């Protein structure tokens, strides 16, 4: 089988039990997953996507990397790794990992009254395609591991209210993550008007990146000037509003290049560029490669 066809088979996975039954929440140990895959190269971790949230709790330093949206993050000590629905990721460990993988759907969050903002606030100041793991200390690891062990107990038990308990424990876990990562200032400021501007700006980009590519147009939606939006976002995050827009377009372009066979022309129109040449110039200016060269280089690594 050639590499192009192999990459065409990369899937977006749905949340399900081993028997294929659809579910909305499951927790597994990383060691169990590793043992299940060991000796089965056809099942080993390859770049893939989920239609659900994943939180990986790594308990100690490992050899290897976690690749999320084409960025490599070293596995360096106890940490929390977030993977959002739709993100392309690959977990490569040189040793038998110790930790847990928590998977849950947006439906599970809704059913248990958990706002997605509890998760989103952790990465409020991060640009698109930037999902670094969050280091945790020994005390924080102990607290989170205790919550995880309770999750496992309820998941494996037959308590009539097990899913309500799992929802409560997941919410507690996420709240502890927010506190564990020195985000007290961010959390205190999260609902202020200034940070609301950043939240709404990122929300508009998520919804409108195919139609709107200019800072001025987003600024008009937010009732501020383009200069003010650029300066404020730059002050808070280290990146300008223009760079946020470019980051989103680049991540989506890379996903389409890897997971589809769209031509350069088709991809340009899919992302809202008026001319294929404009898209090609944009992609090469940011990445240093043409779109087709990027596709070939990533597939050759597979």
UniProtKB/TrEMBL annotation:
Name of the featured protein = Helix-turn-helix domain-containing protein
Lineage of the species this protein comes from: Bacteria, Pseudomonadati, Bacteroidota, Bacteroidia, Marinilabiliales
Q: Does the keyword Transcription apply?
A: yes
InterPro entries per record: Homeodomain-like_sf, HTH-like, HTH_AraC
Q: What is the superkingdom listed in this entry's lineage?
A: Bacteria
Q: Does the keyword Iron apply?
A: no
Q: Which residues form the HTH araC/xylS-type domain?
A: 195-297
Instruction: Keywords in alphabetical order, please.
Output: DNA-binding, Transcription, Transcription regulation
PANTHER family, A to Z: ARAC-FAMILY TRANSCRIPTIONAL REGULATOR, TRANSCRIPTIONAL REGULATORY PROTEIN
């Amino acid at each position: 089988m050639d590499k192009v066809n192999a990459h065409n088979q990369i899937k977006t996975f749905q949340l399900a039990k081993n028997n294929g039954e659809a579910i909305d929440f499951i927790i597994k140990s990383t060691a169990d997953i590793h043992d299940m895959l060991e000796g089965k190269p056809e099942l080993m971790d390859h770049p893939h996507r989920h239609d659900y949230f994943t939180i990986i709790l790594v308990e100690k330093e490992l050899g290897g990397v976690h690749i999320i949206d084409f960025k490599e993050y070293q596995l360096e000590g106890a940490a929390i790794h977030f993977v959002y629905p739709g993100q392309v990721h690959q977990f490569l460990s040189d040793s038998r990992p110790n930790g847990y993988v928590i998977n849950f759907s947006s439906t599970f969050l809704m059913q248990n009254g958990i706002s997605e903002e509890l998760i989103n606030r952790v990465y409020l100041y991060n640009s698109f395609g930037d999902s670094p793991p969050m280091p945790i200390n020994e005390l924080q690891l102990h607290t989170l591991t205790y919550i995880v062990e309770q999750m496992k107990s309820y998941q494996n038990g037959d308590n009539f209210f097990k899913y309500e308990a799992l929802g409560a424990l997941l919410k507690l876990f996420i709240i502890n993550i927010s506190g564990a990562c020195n985000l007290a200032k961010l959390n205190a400021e999260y609902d202020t008007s200034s940070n609301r501007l950043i939240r709404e700006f990122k929300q508009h980009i998520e919804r409108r990146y195919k139609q709107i590519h200019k800072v001025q147009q987003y600024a008009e939606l937010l009732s501020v000037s383009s200069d003010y939006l650029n300066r404020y976002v730059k002050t808070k995050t280290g990146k300008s509003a223009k760079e946020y827009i470019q980051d989103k377009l680049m991540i989506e372009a890379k996903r389409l290049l890897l997971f589809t066979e769209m031509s350069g022309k088709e991809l340009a129109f899919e992302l809202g560029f008026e001319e294929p040449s404009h898209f090609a110039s944009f992609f090469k200016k940011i990445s240093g490669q043409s779109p087709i060269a990027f596709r070939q280089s990533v597939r050759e690594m597979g």
